[in-house]
C-alpha cells in the first residue's frame, strides 16, 4: 500500500509505504487476519474503505485512489522493452534467480523482484526497501516515454488499472510528473513493531505511532495543518520499531550509477511469489 502526496506547485512527491501486515484494528473487517492489506477485500466499500481507514487512522487526506493488477505490471514492463533496475544482492527462490548489479529486467523478473520476501530475514519490511530500486528504474524509464509508448500502454491501463481519478486530472498529473526531479521524490515507510502476541495465530506488525506522527506532519500534510496525534490501533509489542528509512530517488540514482557493475538476469516464472 502506497500513500502518495504530490505537491504539484513545488514539484515534489512524497510517498509512504504501509506494510501489508500492519494491524488496522477491528473497526473494519480483515477476514480475521488483523492485516491492513485485507481491508479492501473484506469490506463492502472495497478500496474506498481502505482509503477511508487510512484517512481516519493516519490523518492523511486522500483525493483519489489507483489500483493495479500484477498482470498489468508484467505487461507494462514488457511493453517498455524491459526496465533497467539495480539489484543490490543475489536472490533466489522457487526457481527464480536474480544476480547483483544493474540489469534490464523483463516483466517476470520485475514481478519476482518486487514480490519476493521469502529470502529476507525481515520479510515484507525488507521487501519495501528493495522495491525502491524498481521505482527508481520505472520513474527513469517513464521520463523517456514517447507518444508511441503511451499509445501501447493505454489498452493495458484500461484493462488492469482502476481509479476514480478523472481523465483530465490523470493526464495533468502525468505531465506534471515529468517535471519532477528524482532528487525531489522521497520514499519512506511506516515504522512498525512486531506484535508481542499473534493475532488469531497470525504474525502482524504494529504501527509506531510516535514516529509515524512525525513523518506525517513533516512530509505529508503540506496542504493542511499538523495534527497532534494519530488514531492507529495498537497491540502489545516487542523490541524496537523499524527505521522509516527516509530516502530520495536521487540517492538511489547515485547508488545504481556508481557501482560500475552489470548483471545478467536468469529467472523463470515468479508465480509463487506473494
Notable characteristics:
274 residues, alpha+beta, four-stranded mixed beta sheet, three-stranded antiparallel beta sheet, 8 helices, 14 strands, 35% helix, disordered C terminus
Biggest sheet features: 4 strands, mixed
Q: Mind telling me the C-alpha Rg?
A: 19 Å
Mean pLDDT: 88
Structural class of the helix and strand makeup? alpha+beta
Portion of residues in beta strands equals 15-25%
The outline comes out as: globular
**Biggest sheet, spatial arrangement of strands:** 1-2-9-13
What is the overall number of helices?
8
Q: Report the strand count.
A: 14
What oligomerization state is this entry in? Answer: single chain
- In helices, the fraction of residues equals 25-40%
Gap between N and C termini, in Å? 14 Å
* Elements, N to C (H/E): EEHEHEEEEHHHEHEEEHEEHE
Low-confidence stretches: 259-274
Can you describe what's shown?
With 274 residues, this protein is an alpha+beta fold. The protein is 35% helix and 19% strand. The protein contains 8 helices and 14 strands. The chain has helices at 47-58, 70-79, 107-115, 124-142, 147-160, 167-177, 209-220, 249-257; strands spanning 2-7, 12-17, 66-68, 83-87, 91-93, 96-98, 101-105, 161-163, 185-189, 192-195, 205-207, 237-238, 247-248, 265-267. The chain has a 4-stranded mixed β-sheet. A 3-stranded antiparallel β-sheet has the order 5-6-14, with helices on one face. A hairpin with a 4-residue loop joins strand 1 and strand 2 (12-17). Helix 2 crosses helix 3, helix 2 (70-79) packs antiparallel against helix 5 and helix 4 (124-142) packs across helix 8 (249-257). The model is unreliable at 259-274 (pLDDT under 50).
Amino acid at each position: 500500500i502506497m500513500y502518495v502526496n504530490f505537491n504539484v506547485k513545488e514539484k515534489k512527491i512524497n510517498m509512504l509505504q504501509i506494510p501489508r501486515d500492519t494491524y488496522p484494528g477491528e473497526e473494519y473487517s480483515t477476514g480475521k487476519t488483523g492485516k491492513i492489506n485485507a481491508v479492501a477485500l473484506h469490506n463492502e466499500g472495497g478500496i474506498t474503505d481502505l482509503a477511508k481507514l487510512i484517512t481516519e487512522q493516519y490523518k492523511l487526506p486522500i483525493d483519489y485512489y489507483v489500483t493495479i493488477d500484477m498482470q498489468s505490471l508484467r505487461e507494462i514492463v514488457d511493453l517498455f522493452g524491459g526496465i533497467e533496475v539495480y539489484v543490490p544482492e543475489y536472490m533466489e527462490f522457487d526457481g527464480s534467480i536474480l544476480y547483483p548489479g544493474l540489469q534490464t529486467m523483463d516483466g517476470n523478473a520485475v514481478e519476482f523482484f518486487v514480490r519476493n520476501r521469502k529470502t529476507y530475514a525481515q520479510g515484507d519490511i525488507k521487501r519495501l526497501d528493495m522495491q525502491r530500486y524498481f521505482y527508481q528504474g520505472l520513474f527513469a524509464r517513464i521520463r523517456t516515454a514517447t507518444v508511441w509508448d503511451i499509445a501501447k500502454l493505454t489498452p493495458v491501463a484500461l484493462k488492469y488499472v482502476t481509479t476514480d481519478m478523472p481523465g483530465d486530472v490523470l493526464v495533468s498529473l502525468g505531465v506534471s510528473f515529468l517535471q519532477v526531479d528524482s532528487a525531489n521524490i522521497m520514499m519512506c515507510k511506516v515504522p512498525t513493531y512486531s506484535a508481542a502476541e499473534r493475532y488469531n495465530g497470525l504474525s502482524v506488525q504494529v504501527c509506531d505511532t510516535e514516529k509515524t506522527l512525525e513523518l506525517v506532519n513533516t512530509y505529508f500534510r503540506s496542504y493542511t495543518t499538523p495534527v497532534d496525534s494519530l488514531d492507529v490501533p495498537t497491540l502489545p509489542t516487542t523490541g524496537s520499531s523499524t527505521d522509516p528509512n527516509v530516502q530520495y530517488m536521487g540517492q538511489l540514482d547515485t547508488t545504481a550509477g556508481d557501482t560500475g557493475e552489470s548483471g545478467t538476469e536468469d529467472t523463470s516464472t515468479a508465480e509463487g511469489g506473494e
